[in-house]
Amino acid sequence: MAITIAVSHGSDLFGEERRSPNQVAAIAKQLATLLPSADWAHIRAPFDAALRGEKTEVEPVHAAQIAVVLRRAAADWLMPTRYEREALLFAEAADRAARAGEPWEWST
Question: Which of 12, 19, 23, 80 has a Cα at 20 to 30 A from 31?
Fold first, then answer.
């Protein structure tokens, strides 16, 4: 069975965004390259934890902040189209968690 990373509050039938570790690593690399270092430092924790195979929960307030940074990254003209979509999907999931007042969970 292939390992996947499940991100809560997603858009699929189960309320998740499911990606392979390679897909998460690729979007993380794009974000790390594109974002100012302070922004990347602010949002990188769930990416890093998931890639280490650790479950992590992001508090709703922080999830809302991450959503803002992800949307800004997606709108940047340097963001490749395929990663723009991923950044927006993750931003929407983070926003849903924040609006619900629930932790935004990442797990393998």
Answer: 12
d(CA 69, CA 25): 17
**Which strand (E) or helix (H) includes residue 99?**
helix 81-100
Dihedral over alpha carbons 17, 22, 25, 30 (to 10 degrees): -90
pLDDT tens, position by position, 54-90? 999 999 999 999 999 999 999 999 999 999 999 999 9
Q: What domain range is 84 assigned to?
A: 5-107
Tokens 């998460």, residue?
24
Structural domain total, the chain: 1
Identify the CA nearest to 91 among candidates 59, 61, 69, 75. 69
